Structure formats: C-alpha cells, structure tokens
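Posting for a labmate who doesn't have an account.
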Amino acid sequence: MKNLKNIGLALVIALSFASCKQESKEVAVEETKKEAVSEADLAKMQTASFTIDGMTCAMGCAKSIENKLADQEGVGQAVVDFETKIATVKFDSEKQSLESLTKTIEGVAGGDSYKVKESKKM
C-alpha cells in the first residue's frame, strides 16, 4: 500500500513537470509569432501620447495598458509611464488611429478603470 502511494505521488509529480514543460513551449512559439518591428519601421511610424487617469500602480495598471497596446496590430512600440500618467505609442496610421488606441486603453480591465484625458500626435 505504501509503495502504491509513492508510485502515485511520483506519477503526479512527473505529470506536473511534463505539463509545465509543454506550456512553456507553447508560450515560446506564441511569442515568436508576433512580427518584430525594425528600427527603420519604427522611424516611419507616427507617435502619439495619451494622458491616462485611473492608474493606481505601475506593475498592474501601467503594465497591463502597455501590453494591451503593444499587442494591437500596427503598434510598433508602447510605453506607459506610471509616474507621469502618459502612454507614448508608435503606430502605423494605416492600421490604427488616436480613436482606436484610446478605445484600447479605455477598454483595459473591462472598461471601467481608465480614462484618456488627452491624446495628441507628436
């Protein structure tokens, strides 16, 4: 009986490690799917800044908004500065606009937390 418990425990541990390894492979493949933006492409893109109200922390709020913006098609770079409450975004104007980026920001966390107070192209 004791051996059966030990074998069961070893099997559970082995399956946990195997499933974790499988997950990390899937994540790595998913991360490489996003097309890299070259410095030349970034130079051709428009830049806009957004003043955001409602952020309460750097890691949760600012990072969530930054990641959501960076995942949008046509966005080459997104940086959200929690201290100044400003998001700076480089984007392809054929694929994104100030309005669509504003909707993306305000839609993070269910749409109730963040509000764009001001947006402007630079």
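Reply:
Got it, the structure tokens are right above this. Confidence is low (pLDDT under 50) at residues 17-33.
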